[in-house]
Amino acid sequence: MESFRINNRGIGGDNSCFIIAELSANHGGKIEIAIEAIRAAKHAGADAIKFQTFTADTITLNSKKKWFKIDHGTVWDGHYLHDLYQEAALPWEWHKELFETATEEGLLCFSSPFDKTAVDFLEELNCPAYKIASFEITDIPLIKYVASIGKPIIISTGIADEEDIQLAIDTCRAAGNEKIAILKCTSAYPALPEDANLLIIPDISESFNVVAGLSDHTLGVEGPIVAVALGAKIIEKHFILDKSIGGLDAHFSLDEKEFKMMVEAVRKAELMMGKVDYEMTESKKKSREFSRSLFVVEDIKGGEMLTDKNIRSIRPGFGMHPKFYKDVLGKKASKDIEKGTPLIKELFK
Asked: Does this model's pTM top 0.85?
């Protein structure tokens, strides 16, 4: 499996799953909330905190034309894009302090840029990696510019078909960047379980030879657990300090308690997956004592024949393997054998 590093953290390969807390619009318009959210994400077990770096003017137009009004059956219906993004945007003047807070907490911190100016700004902050949001996967000039910097690039696939994914990857590789992760994502907020299609995760890894993961918008923690079992090496989930704060993304975000529950479940799933190993461990050997084996179930005199009446396959496992059952029938006891004795080769001839 492919792998790369974000600073000193290994991503993919044999490394543990990289768990990202996505702050997104869950800052309530107050830097104090954003700072506390970073600390809470650390307490909840996240490996990284991720922001989104844009302004309403860099992501859309301030227009009231019909094309700019949301009408897709979401909680945001009726909003104009510019108004929505103006409310959601993380102020650029906060970024430096938030990056510093994350570093103090021992969290990796990076962001999703939405145009070239955001990339240049994040470079000034030594952003160690970049995330391309689902709706930007078709912005090939942006992907090319980000990839050319040479840092790891993580791309969500919420609106993408196979051709879009391949083009994005080819663009990165053409820029000399092989540090690529592709996240399965369903661009619905929240996403329904039946639309998750998590079986695509191992196919992404195999088909495109990249690190694969999940950017999850379903409610609850089941999606990440299943994803890890399918080979996901990155999990991204929206995080909020307190749902009572409200906000544009609050309804499909996890709070600290829920996020911690998810992290613990993911780590347990990783332990349970283990490795492909048929070796006989000491634990297996001990348990094997309770398996079946051949036993003498009636007293047998020396010279008497072994039959299906006096020999049976029963628990425990101190006698011969049951596969020899047919072979021993008809043999003669080499001496007197008491009922309840494990049958071994020395007892017959």
From this structure: yes
